[in-house]
Amino acid sequence: MALDPEILADLLEAVERFVRDRLRPIEEQVAAEDRIPDSVLGEMREMGLFGLSIPEEFGGLGLTMAEEVQVAFRLGHASPAFRSIIGTNNGIGSQGIILDGTDAQKRRYLPDLATGQLISCFCLTEAEAGSDAGSLRTTARRDGGDYIINGAKRFITNAPEAGLFTVFARTNPESLDARGVSAFLVERETPGISLGKPDSKMGQKGTHTCDVMFDDVRVSADAIIGGLARENEGFKTAMKVLDRGRLHISAVCVGVAQRLIKDSLAYAMERRQFGEPLAQFQLVQAMLADMRTETFAAQCMVEETARRRDAGADVTIDAACSKMFASEMVGRVADKAVQIHGGAGYMSEYGIERLYRDVRLFRIYEGTTQIQQLVIARGMIREATKAA
User: Fold this and answer.
1) Nearest by Cα to 76 from 262, 312, 325, 305
2) Whole-angstrom Cα distance, residue 358 to residue 360?
3) Superfamily assignment of 5-115 in CATH?
4) pLDDT in tens, 20-45
5) What is the architecture, at CATH level 2, of domain 236-387?
6) pTM for the whole thing?
7) How is 44-64 classified by DSSP, letter by letter?
8) Is 187 a catalytic residue?
9) Parallel, antiparallel, or unpaired for β 209-220 and 120-123?
10) Where are the domains of the chain?
């Protein structure tokens, strides 16, 4: 159910103010220290940002997709690290439980995920498996009423802070694809879990990733999302929540692009060359116009697809289109922002070069651009086949 318009307006205003007054002033500090201050995390919890998409009955805000993307647009005006820390709690970390979890799983985990007292992470990627689910090597062997998990996951966002791991492991050793994989809810304190050292990344400092190792980790059958009845159906659960995740990332891309445009326009109007502002030069104007047009196109795609998803439509193809276009778009916008700033754009003090590095990741996670192309094209073929 959608929020009352006045309540939504108040929420969006509060997020804008939080981004402007609290997050943007400490972006350089977060990048330098590679951590978000505990005080800021506390404020994010109080605002309910960890539970944007979690139903109100479990302590979340219960936003619709159309409402969530409006919040994501605004969060995108700050460093992506701030959005990333809440991302999994609002995405696969909670949506899989909401859609397919047992009542006991919902009661156990959703309230703490909604408040941010519990951070979740999504353990899918391995050294030789990410987009290629058929190569997944982590196993979950049945042992009486339990499963024994063995394997290693790579580049797991929020793993250093996480208290709950959604772990994808092969429960059917005979399978050669994703149909033999189950999704497990594994708590951090379970014996046998260890973490690698934090990864050193190109960008998005303040967002932490690392390897996660599972060495004879014993969990009960109740740890499978949905219980034993959903053994070998972990990827079906994942696919159900992908549309929402891709739209959320698309909206963040739009928000970052809007911020880059605003900063670039302000610089072009202030910086003078040959006796007049940069903004008066037609080739600079062309770059600004291209940036605005592409960002507006992505915003329209995201908003329309979000509305259709809330109405119950199948938006798998359009969500993939949105994610592909928006993530590629923000890369082009960031490149033009550096160009408009010239030498200043290459210097760290203006923050443009940091965002230029930060946005590169958007074309990789939540499905690479190439995976989105496959989702789109194969969806088109299925639709055409059904219509024939």
Assistant:
1) 262
2) 6
3) Acyl-CoA dehydrogenase/oxidase, N-terminal domain (1.10.540.10)
4) 999 999 999 999 999 999 999 999 99
5) Up-down Bundle (1.20)
6) 0.95
7) HHHHTGGGTTS-GGGTS----
8) no
9) unpaired
10) 5-115, 120-233, 236-387
